[in-house]
Amino acid sequence: RDNLGDWSSDVCSSDLPTLLLGTANFGPEGGTPWYTHHTQEAASVLLDAWAALGGKRLDTAALYGVTDEWGTGGSERLLKSVGATGGKFVLDTKVRLVSLLRHDVW
Questions:
Q1: From CA 33, how far away is CA 31, in angstroms rounded?
Q2: Who's near 41: CB < 8 A, 6+ residues apart?
Q3: What is the pTM of this model?
Q4: What is the pLDDT of residue 96?
Q5: Contact 64/75 with Cβ under 8 angstroms?
């Protein structure tokens, strides 16, 4: 920090990086083999452990939890079903801008 000068206090909010729990393994049963947390119980156990460690942020994406039955957003639906979207956590999600700009999506 000494080399950053006076502006460092305005830019650097913490000396520690922000950690996020990845949720690519959250998805419906019958999806890909890496959907290891496909029940509400399994998801809740992991999220409770993350919260107990002080974790607040979750990384997700519309493409996590994709199946023919659920379509996209399976991970996000599972997170919602266990109450992760009610303010307990901050969800950092990703979308594909290209798919939003395609005319057939509208």
A1: 7
A2: none
A3: 0.70
A4: 66
A5: yes
